[in-house]
Give the backbone structure.
Amino acid sequence: MKIHLQRSHGLLAMAAMAALAALAIFGSFSCRRTEEASGPAQSATPQSGGSAAIAWTADIGGVNELIVPSSNATNEVLFHVFDHLAEEQPDFTEHAPTMAPLLAKSWEWSADRKSITFHLEEKAVWSDGVPITAEDVRFTWQAQIHPDVGWGDASAKQFITDVEAVDAHTARFHFSRAYAKQMLDANEGVILPKHVWSQIPFSEWRKNGDWFRDHIVTSGPFRLESWKSQQEIVLAKNPRYHRPGRPRLDRVVLRIVPETSSQIAQLLAGEVDFAANVQPTDAPRIEADQRLELLAIPFRNFIFVAWNNQRGGFDDPEIRRALTLGIDRQRIVDTLWGRFAKVAVSPILSFVWAHDKSIQPLPYDPEQARKILAAKGFRDVNGDGVIERGGKPFRFDLTTNAGNQQRIDATVMIQAQLASLGVAAVPRIVEFNSLAAKLEEGDYDAVILGLGMDTSLDLTTMLHTRAIGNGNNLSRYSNEQVDRLIDEAAGQPDIEAMVPLIHRIEAIVQQDQPATYLWESQRLMGVNRRVREVRPSPIYMLWNLHDWWVEPAPGGPAR
Amino acid sequence: MISFLLRRLGASVLLLALVLSAVFFLIHLTPGDPSQLIEDPRMTLEQRANLRRIYGLDRPLIEQYGRWLVATVQGDWGISMVQQRPVARVLGEAILPTLALATTALTIQICVGFLFGFAGALRRDRPLDHLLRAVSLIFFSLPVFWLGLMAILTFSVHWPLLPAGGMRSIGAEALPPLARARDLLAHLILPASVIGLASSGALARFVRSSLIDALGQEHIRMARARGLREWRVVGVHALRYALAPVIQILALGIPTLLSGSFVIEVIFSWPGLGRVGFDAVLGRDYPVVLAGTALAAVLVILFNLFADLGHAALDPRVREGLAAGAR
């Protein structure tokens, strides 16, 4: 027996030694990047070459944006592989958004503003050397509106009646009417390579995601060097890119890391240079590391409670106002986001130039909320802590989607805050797809969700009566005056003219409180200081990826 | 034995058909469909309806079932509705990483589980036994996501010895084959150790109790009485008796490992079947869900069969029972 015991000890010791040896052997390999990544940047002169690694939250759905599910993760990557005609600038915080030339070097409007003519950059070629022409622009539009392609954003093209290839480098968009966001609509979607992708009919596109991947030619600063599903996407410099000196990096590796804490771990360990999804709780760890920098930019998104205006109780603006007054939004923001968010006030984000800065969030005023509810006939008659009217307790389901801890936490905090008014909000956490089906059917009392807002100032899908059940009017809000103002704003010939109308809509929404706007947050990212000129924008985190550059490693070329 | 195998095979095919049909109807009856995965706020009801038409989701469910059944029998698992790629390719890409992770984790589980179980049984109720039982219990009780995060913090961040995630280092493809293999192993150590250690706790306790039970058997006492050496008594006779139930437990656990450990795959950014399956369920990617379920069901059925055969090979009483059943 003793022999066996000794052998057991021996085996344990051997296992421990083997584990230590393995750590030592493999550790020597994995440590290398950490050592290379450490140390502050030395030079301020941009360098060409080298590579950067990015921890990216989700894999791309494919390379053909017309058939892949639209998502930020996919759009950001494709934005650097395929060019648009023009590039929307992130200057909408100061004034109406402007456009910079990209594939189109210039454009002009017709006198009646019902057509735009784009003049394409003659030097622009696909990555296989074939020139990018007006035929590509026309082909792209044909694909975008084809029913068998089923592009999710096809509604952007609803007023475009034709795209004419005037000559090899001139494309003209014809519209059925003039309106404010014609340029945005014309520019929506990247330009696709007709000479390659027209080889298969549109009706077959949705069955051939891999074919596009195998037959990809690109027009952007990078080409897709490799893509290992759920592992990594490697973008390599497109040597034929038409903008001189761009991109600066030879290679960008996007490593798919869905877990945010794993992203931070990899950033801290020096395995990646950029973490795309930093939680507020992780911000201090990044700030404490001298090799790293925390980047915070406004996020074009707001979180709100949509009261189902078609359900009893929530159909009264006064009651909705009382609920907003009874929610301590500042406390929610402070708890969940700290300094990285602010209380939201309107569907027009507060950092957008057209927002009416005079509108202030309703204060937290539970006393006033109680008075309003009492005036509306709510009393706690049976003493159970929940107010009633006509024998019916003020109880409703407050639903949000599973998988978003901040929304779940907010749901619980709102439940507690409304309970002090005698209002019983019952939290319901529902898987996103099931929730989407409920939203479509209007089968909910109140939901906490987020919505993204582009720069078009078009509030149709959020507030118009016709967007109830067919868009993102999740409050199922209907106000004839607001409908009229939205229609009037959408028909303005330029975006500047929309502003007074938008301000009037914001004032009515503030009065009606179809939803309680909770917060606008910042998007947080972590970057290793060895990577320079990283300037995310509210539009894209990797906004200026083509400008990024890295310091050469000591004694050698840039990594 | 052949008759037994044929009967089991027939039952397995029937079981597989039932499982897949049940999953087909359940996933289709769950609220939501792939058209609702799309985040675009401007997508209208008409566009969603158009997508449903393209994918045939607007047809009666029974018709969809019929079409799916015919295609499946012909070996066509369809096209992923989210990735627009053949399902076989989607799953095929995830199988190898899962196999690599599962086999390494299984090796760790078996080594640690048997080592602890043996040592505990042979040193029953002594300090070493108490220590190993406590350690096994800790492995068994700790949630794998916590263990995974702690492993990353300890061995990747605090002491940067091992990669924090992924399956290979950036640029590893340019390395020579040996260095590439070493790189893969470096990435495997943490996730496989977490899965292996977490599942070794239960195995260790099972091996210990089986071996204690075996050591108390009449034939073991007889073997000792006949003067056989102790290593032969334990290593051959007792082990053979103790292994039979342990093999069943292991065989039934293997499909779970192969189907992918979603939590670990997410934490360590491991591109395996667990992540593919989870994403498919969330995205209502029906063809991928069904094919993934079929794969998992086949694995369960196969390893159940292996477990029975392994048990029969080790235990003559079971062998006789199977033969009698066949007659």
